[in-house]
UniProtKB/TrEMBL annotation:
The name this protein goes by in its record: Molybdopterin-dependent oxidoreductase
Any Pfam family: MoCoBD_2
InterPro entries: Ald_Oxase/Xan_DH_a/b, Ald_Oxase/Xan_DH_a/b_sf, Ald_Oxase/xanthine_DH-like, AldOxase/xan_DH_MoCoBD1, AldOxase/xan_DH_MoCoBD2, AldOxase/xan_DH_Mopterin-bd_sf
Gene Ontology molecular-function annotations: iron ion binding; oxidoreductase activity
Lineage: Bacteria, Bacillati, Bacillota, Clostridia, Eubacteriales
SMART domains: Ald_Xan_dh_C
Domain (Aldehyde oxidase/xanthine dehydrogenase a/b hammerhead) ranges: 20-126
Coiled coil: none
Length: 759
């Protein structure tokens, strides 16, 4: 099928503004009479609040207001699934970043002085730091109802029988780190209040319509009088899916009647912001001597920190994917989402998949080594195909590209010439290795959760269109992809389409820009709206041309006769009549489909549509220092039909860098509930200068339910990068990486031991 705009490399509309610095992000916004706001954070990771004295701060010249829990007019709690996090704490703090008071003042300097002047009396409480101990034997409680927020159990097949007949049983424990999102723009925003009482909050957000609800609930303010705008956003990766500063901004503006701006410093962002869930994963795998997987037993502990946020959903996704992209007929899985005093964890790109993919893919390489099998061949032997039964017991009815991604990787020149390349180093202390990994990521929210997207299309008098979608473009390039889909569906030039998103006043609720759903769900909604618009155009053209609707077609911005393209009307000629009738704006919606299989007590499981990825990584390890240099990474994503070829390459390059950081260096180190890496000189992230050579070769396994065959790819593109790198380290050194990140110090310690049991 020939496309005009789909499957092309189309330059993003925001490219010029972002490269020249003309784009104004949330932290760039300013309004007349604007105040600065700030948040007083807890001094202790776990303590009772015995008293709050704001008198000195309130008396300071230039300080306009100081607010505590007593000033929260509505529900003093927020959270996507459970509203267990206080807007402002009143009796207890549960992590070092808990908000206790907020200040608005004439300058940022005055805000800092006022925050320092607030005196809070605390009574420290015992800490809950180890998620395993928190479940098994810790008497201290983060929340009165217990330390386990979510317990998920799934069992299929005959697990004990499968282990009994296995030729090999491999059992290991894997641990993962607390990774931060590292977005270029920290949590920032401005709130304003107009003379009609319209409260507008500009902020970085994945889901403005949900923010609108949470602000309304906490401030006891009419939802229809709240506007949330989230465009443009300086990066998200999941870290701006939950409330960050939105309610505090709105509260200060309502109390002062003036615009208020809050911008978190990088240090504050690192300490208080959402992180990737650290996990302890106990994995037991059974296989035949030929390498056929028989069973998996998984016990998983996920540290969600002080509050729930999306911890339960992250746990369930981890449970779903803890057997990898493979046919495993017998599984027993139990997962604990645990409260601790270790900061807060929430949504992050991959959403629980990264942790378990690292564990399972390491397990696969260790199985291959013990059985004397090629690591790629053992994956091909067990990889899921369309029509297979997945480990959770549901049928993979939709497209599954696992085998094709692995087959393409097996023919890559770097893989075919791997032994020659590994032998090519001239320095004996440098060892080379090549690793492979694969994974799957569900598209959408999954079974049991409402997942609907909406879009509107408005026809203007000049024949151009405005497409409105609620899902914000948080940097991944939604806008250009939406424009491509709309232009293709409307049979017009892409320059005749304007796309707006991330604004509760101007766009319909389309759900969150998360869960690899933005293009899949909103793209389908756009196509459905476009179909309605074309029907209206054809109906009007049929009247003018005295033809039946069935005799008409749309092409290049015109409605023409199927038999004679010279007979027709342009969209602009038809627009006036539709506008006059008030039918020039149409809506479309799409409900993300889910499988029939229902897993009791596990909302979000399973998924129907999956994206996939296979990665090959080439590394060089210095045996004297433990340093690992990633030389090259191949990415073979299964994203269905690619909407924007430029976009998928950008996603892959970014995924490689983020996955490399997760593998080698990124970790918010905590001790006693306190962050030991509170800035970018101690929390180490790779930069563009560290990026390895990267190749991207998509496998376009078309998805019948997707817009033009597309699936989401933003998360799948990342999940297998880390284990590909750690498996390459295993290939180079014989050391199995079982704990992330594998820093030079950790790797060197194992190399010096010489036993190479794993790090």
């Amino acid at each position: 099928m020939e496309f005009k705009w789909i499957n092309k490399a189309v330059t993003r509309q925001d490219a010029r503004g972002k490269t020249t610095g003309e784009t104004r992000y949330m932290s760039d916004l300013s309004f007349p009479g604007m105040l600065w706001g700030g948040i007083l954070r807890s001094e202790y990771p776990h303590a009772l609040i015995k008293g709050i004295d704001c008198s000195v701060a309130r008396a300071m010249p230039g300080v306009v207001t100081v607010l505590t829990h007593e000033d929260v007019p509505g529900l003093n709690g927020y959270g996507i699934t459970v509203q267990d996090q206080p807007v402002l704490c009143w009796d207890k703090v549960r992590y070092l970043g808990d908000a206790v008071a907020v200040v608005a003042a004439e300058s940022r300097e005055l805000v800092r002085e006022a925050l320092s002047a607030i005196k809070v009396e605390y009574e420290p409480l015992p800490l809950v730091l180890d998620p395993v101990a928190a479940v098994e034997n810790n008497p201290a409680l983060v929340h009165e109802k217990g330390n386990v927020f979510r317990l998920t159990k799934v069992e299929t097949g005959a697990v004990d029988e499968a282990f009994g007949r296995a030729d090999i049983v491999l059992e290991n424990t894997y641990t993962t780190s607390r990774q931060m999102h590292g977005f270029l723009e920290t949590e920032a925003g401005v709130a304003t209040l107009d003379q009609d009482g319209m409260l507008t909050v500009w902020c970085g957000s994945h889901y403005p319509h949900r923010d609108q609800l949470q602000i309304s609930r906490s401030l006891n303010y009419p939802r229809e009088k709240i506007r949330v705008v989230s465009n443009p956003v300086g990066g998200g990766f999941g870290g701006k899916d939950e409330i960050t500063i939105q309610i505090h901004l709105a509260l200060l503006t309502l109390k002062t009647g003036r615009p208020v701006k809050i911008v978190l410093s990088r240090e504050e962002s690192i300490v208080v912001g959402w992180k990737r869930h650290p996990m302890v994963i106990k994995l037991k795998t059974a296989a035949t001597r030929e390498g056929e997987l028989l069973a998996n037993e998984v016990t998983l502990y996920s540290d969600t920190g002080a509050y729930a946020s999306l911890g339960g959903s992250v746990l369930n996704v981890a449970i779903e994917n803890s057997s990898g992209a493979y046919r495993v007929p017998n599984v027993r899985k139990i997962g604990y989402c645990v409260y601790t005093n270790n900061g807060v964890a929430g949504a992050m790109r991959g959403f629980g998949d990264n942790q378990v993919t690292f564990a399972m893919e390491t397990q696969m390489d260790l199985l291959a080594r013990q059985l004397g099998l090629d690591p790629l061949e053992i994956r091909l032997k067990n990889g899921l195909r369309q029509g297979d039964t997945a480990p959770l017991g549901h049928t993979m009815t939709q497209s599954v590209g696992t085998i094709k991604t692995l087959e393409l990787a097996s023919q890559w020149e770097g893989w075919l010439q791997r032994e020659k390349w590994k032998a090519g180093t001239e320095k004996p202390w440098l060892k080379r290795g090549i690793g492979v990994a694969t994974g799957l990521k569900g598209v959408g929210l999954g079974r049991g959760l409402t997942d609907i997207s909406r879009a509107t299309i408005t026809l203007h008098i000049d024949g151009t269109f405005t497409v409105a979608v609620g899902c914000p473009d948080i940097g991944q390039g939604n806008n250009v992809a939406y424009s491509q889909i709309a232009a293709e569906a409307l049979e017009c030039d892409i320059n005749e389409v304007t796309t707006i998103n991330g604004d509760t006043l101007l766009t319909p609720d389309a759900g969150s820009s998360t869960a690899s759903r933005s293009i899949y769900a909103a793209g389908n909604a756009i196509i459905n709206a476009a179909s309605t618009m074309l029907d209206l155009l054809k109906q009007e053209a049929a009247k003018r041309l005295n033809l039946n609707i069935g005799q008409l077609t749309c092409q290049l911005g015109r409605v023409t006769s199927r038999e004679n393209s010279g007979i027709g009307c342009s969209y602009s000629e038809l627009a006036g009549e539709l506008i006059g009738q008030g039918i020039n704006c149409v809506a479309g919606s799409f409900v993300v489909p889910v499988p029939e299989r229902d897993i009791q007590g596990a909302a979000g499981l399973p998924h129907l549509v999956y994206s996939g990825i296979s990665n090959v990584a080439m590394v060089e390890v210095n045996m004297h220092t433990g340093e690992c240099q990633v030389i090259k990474v191949l990415s073979v994503p299964d994203a269905g039909r690619v909407i924007n070829k430029q976009g998928i390459e950008g996603q892959a390059d970014g995924g490689v860098l983020m996955g490399m950081g997760y593998a080698l260096c990124e970790d918010v180190v905590m001790e006693g509930g306190r962050v030991l890496t509170p800035n970018l000189s101690t929390y180490i992230m790779h930069t563009a200068l560290d990026a390895p050579e990267s190749e991207t070769h998509p496998v376009e396994e078309l998805e019948s339910s997707g817009p033009y065959g597309a699936k989401g790819v933003g998360e799948a593109i990342l999940i297998a990068v880390t284990p590909a790198i750690t498996n390459a380290i295993l290939d180079a050194t014989g050391v199995a990486v079982k704990s992330l990140p594998v820093t030079p110090e950790k790797l060197l310690a194992e190399l010096r031991q010489g036993t190479q049991p794993g790090v």
